[in-house]
TrEMBL record:
This is Enoyl-CoA hydratase. GO terms for molecular function: catalytic activity. InterPro entries: ClpP/crotonase-like_dom_sf (IPR029045), Enoyl-CoA_hydra/iso (IPR001753), Enoyl-CoA_hydra_C (IPR014748). Belongs to the enoyl-CoA hydratase/isomerase family. It holds the Pfam family ECH_1.
Length: 261
C-alpha cells in the first residue's frame, strides 16, 4: 500500500505531498497522524530551508474523509476528538514552522483542505484550483484554524459570507480576495511552486522565521507589545551569520550568500 503522505528534500526544499489521489486526498485518521509527523519532521529538518505542501492527482485536499466520518457516527464515536488530536496540531505545526511554507494548490481545497492551504505562508494555485469552506454544507462549524485565518485574510464580513454560504471560489477569485498569492496554468504549477520555494530556501531562513513570529505575535497584541517583540526578534537575527555576511556583502557591493543560520 502506498504511503498516504510523501516527503522529499531536493535543493533545500522539503516537499510534503498528500498522496491519496483516489480519495481526492481526503484525510483519514491514519493520514492525519502521518501528516502531522511529516510536518514536524520537515520543521526540524536542517536540509529543508523551505517547504512545499501539495496534493497528488486532481485535488489538493478535500478535507475530512466523510466515509470514515460516517462510520464513526454510526459507531457512536462522533468526531472522535479529531479536531483536537489531529487538525489543531497539524495547523499549529505548519503555521509555527520557523521556515517559509508554500501551498501548491493543484485542485480542490475544501474544508480542512482549504484550512491547510491558508495555514501556509504563501499560496500558489493552479488555474483549475477551487477553494471552498464547506463546513456548513454538512452542518458543522469551521475547524483547522479557518475562523482565525480567513477573517485575517479577507476581513470579518467576507469571512462570514464564505463560511455561512459555503460557495466555492475559483482560483482567480481567490487571488482577487488575497486567498492566493499567485495563479498559474495547471501544467506550470509544480515548477512555479518549486521556483518560489527554492528562492526562499536560498534566503535568510532565520529572518524568515522571525517574520512569521512577528506577524503571529502582532495579530493578537497591541502596538507596544508588537514593538517589543520586534526588538527581541531583531536581537536574535543580529546574531546570525547571515546578517553579518549580508552586511559585509552590502558594504562591498557584493551579492549576499545566505546559509540559513
Amino acid at each position: 500500500m502506498a504511503e498516504t503522505v510523501l516527503y522529499d528534500v531536493t535543493d533545500g526544499v522539503g516537499t510534503i505531498t498528500l498522496n491519496r489521489p483516489d480519495g481526492m486526498n481526503s484525510l483519514t485518521a491514519e493520514m492525519k497522524e502521518l501528516l502531522r509527523a511529516t510536518v514536524v519532521r520537515a520543521a526540524a529538518d536542517p536540509a529543508a530551508r523551505a517547504v512545499i505542501l501539495t496534493g497528488a492527482g486532481r485535488a489538493f485536499c478535500a478535507g475530512q474523509d466523510l466515509r470514515e466520518h460516517a462510520a464513526n457516527l454510526a459507531a457512536g464515536k462522533g468526531l472522535d476528538d479529531t479536531v483536537r488530536r489531529h487538525y489543531n496540531p497539524i495547523v499549529l505545526a505548519l503555521a509555527g514552522m520557523r521556515k517559509p511554507v508554500v501551498a501548491a494548490v493543484n485542485g480542490v481545497a475544501a474544508g480542512a483542505g482549504a484550512s491547510l492551504a491558508w495555514a501556509c505562508d504563501l499560496v500558489v494555485a493552479s488555474d483549475k484550483a477551487r477553494f471552498a469552506t464547506a463546513f456548513t454544507g454538512i452542518g458543522l462549524a469551521p475547524d483547522s484554524g479557518m475562523s482565525w485565518t480567513l477573517q485575517r485574510l479577507v476581513g470579518r464580513a467576507k469571512a462570514a459570507e464564505l463560511l455561512l454560504l459555503g460557495e466555492p471560489l475559483t482560483a482567480p477569485q481567490a487571488l482577487e480576495l488575497g486567498l492566493a498569492n499567485r495563479v498559474v496554468p495547471a501544467d506550470e504549477l509544480a515548477p512555479a511552486a518549486v521556483e518560489l520555494a527554492r528562492r526562499l530556501a536560498a534566503g535568510p531562513t532565520a529572518a524568515y522565521g522571525a517574520v512569521k513570529a512577528a506577524l503571529d505575535f502582532a495579530a493578537t497584541h497591541d502596538l507596544a507589545a508588537a514593538l517589543e517583540r520586534e526588538a527581541e526578534l531583531q536581537d536574535e537575527c543580529e546574531k546570525t551569520g547571515d546578517h553579518h555576511n549580508a552586511t559585509d556583502a552590502f558594504l562591498n557591493k557584493a551579492k549576499p550568500v545566505f546559509e540559513g543560520r
